[in-house]
């Protein structure tokens, strides 16, 4: 008898046969049988499952610092929205359905139709559960269990999806690593740091750096700092 639900034994998770294809996976994500916990992504034909809890010191705190800094920046300028945790991004072109650690969508992208909010519920069409298209920025915080995925697999698929900017932070080692990558000719190229470790975000039009200070309770306290170019007056003397 054919198996109706392939089992991913490492996580004891049953995946319906229909979900082994991109469209079937999208439908499974919206069904009642999809797990409420863990991160499950469709990566160009492969289903990647991450059920391990986040490390508070090297993942949770870093993600919170990035979210706080980016969220305030976007809100102050009315540029768009920041999404964090269980926000699914889908790209039919890249055969990608994933939940990045952080997602940024600009108002201009929605207005131009490059990005759309999708609902898969016929009963509740107002329930938006997926972002389709090339969002403006994604960020990943590297974990021990996701090094290959965060540094190789996902960047290649984010590039194929046309996402113009990728941030990667890694706080696991002795040195804090933070990189901004921009899409150039279909691949990501790292932004070269200026004096002081500042990295230019072309999409946001400002420089950023991630810093940390010792903390007696959590080991480190993280902060996303920003530096903006001075405004140039158009008025003649």
Tell me the radius of gyration.
19 Å
Helical amount among residues, as a percent range? 10-25%
Strand-residue fraction?
Answer: 35-45%
The oligomeric status of these chains comes to single chain
The poorly predicted ranges are 1-5, 232-237
Number of DSSP strands?
17
Give the neighbour order of strands across the main sheet.
Answer: 4-3-7-6-10-9
Return the domain count. Answer: 1
Please provide a written account of the structure:
By secondary structure, the chain is of the alpha+beta class. It has a single domain (54-227), classed as tt1808, chain A. It is built from four helices and 17 strands. A hairpin with a 2-residue loop joins strand 13 (177-184) and strand 14. The chain is globular and about 50 Å long. The termini are far apart.
Question: Which descriptors apply to this entry?
Answer:
six-stranded mixed beta sheet; tt1808, chain A; alpha+beta; 17 strands; disordered C terminus; 237 residues
Summarize this entry quickly.
The protein is of the alpha+beta class and about 240 residues long.
What's the layout of helices and strands?
Layout: E1 7-8, E2 13-14, H1 22-29, E3 39-43, E4 46-50, H2 56-77, E5 80-84, E6 89-91, E7 96-98, E8 102-106, H3 107-112, E9 115-118, E10 130-133, E11 137-141, H4 147-160, E12 165-170, E13 177-184, E14 187-190, E15 199-201, E16 206-215, E17 219-227
Parallel strand pairs: 6-10, 11-12
Antiparallel strand pairs: 1-2, 3-4, 3-7, 5-8, 6-7, 8-11, 9-10, 12-13, 13-14, 15-16, 16-17
